[in-house]
Design a protein that fits this description.
Elements lengths: L18 E5 L6 E7 L3 H13 L3 E10 L2 E10 L5 H38 L11
Antiparallel strand pairs: 1-2, 2-4, 3-4
Pfam family, one: RNA_pol_L_2
Family: Belongs to the archaeal Rpo11/eukaryotic RPB11/RPC19 RNA polymerase subunit family.
GO cellular component, one term: RNA polymerase II, core complex
């Protein structure tokens, strides 16, 4: 079979960089970023977050081929920040947002488990009713 081993889709090889920046010569304040071992999931999240930034004029992504775990993102800014700074800011915002989502999920899960224990009265945590 021609398909790569599954671990090659998400593990970096020795010496392989996660993100490589290439400045686009024909456009001002524009760079292409190649992100290894990623796909549409992070590409869509990142490009949409970049588009929300006031200093980003254009952001878009593509995945060249489904069997090649590589993501290409192009970012153009208005010049007040570099494309690299815009990308780093967007990544930091996403990490913060999903960290908060994870904390809220864990809190709600703990409250649900506590409520389920209270309904059963025996502390076993087993589901007592139908939903």
């Amino acid at each position: 079979m021609n398909a790569p081993d599954r671990f090659e889709l998400f593990l970096l090889q020795d010496g392989e960089k996660k993100i490589v920046e290439t400045v686009v010569n024909g456009m001002s304040n524009c760079s292409d970023f190649t992100i290894k071992k990623e796909d549409h999931t992070i590409g869509n999240l990142l490009s949409e977050r970049l588009k929300q930034a006031p200093n980003v004029m254009m952001a878009g992504y593509k995945v060249a081929h489904p069997n090649v775990p590589e993501l290409f993102i192009r970012v153009q800014t208005d010049g007040t920040v570099t494309p690299r700074e815009a990308l780093v800011n967007a990544l930091k915002q996403l990490v913060a947002a999903y960290g908060q989502l994870g904390r809220e999920f864990q809190k709600e899960l703990a409250l649900r488990q506590y409520a389920d224990q209270g309904e059963n009265g025996d502390g076993s945590g087993a589901q007592g009713g139908t939903y």
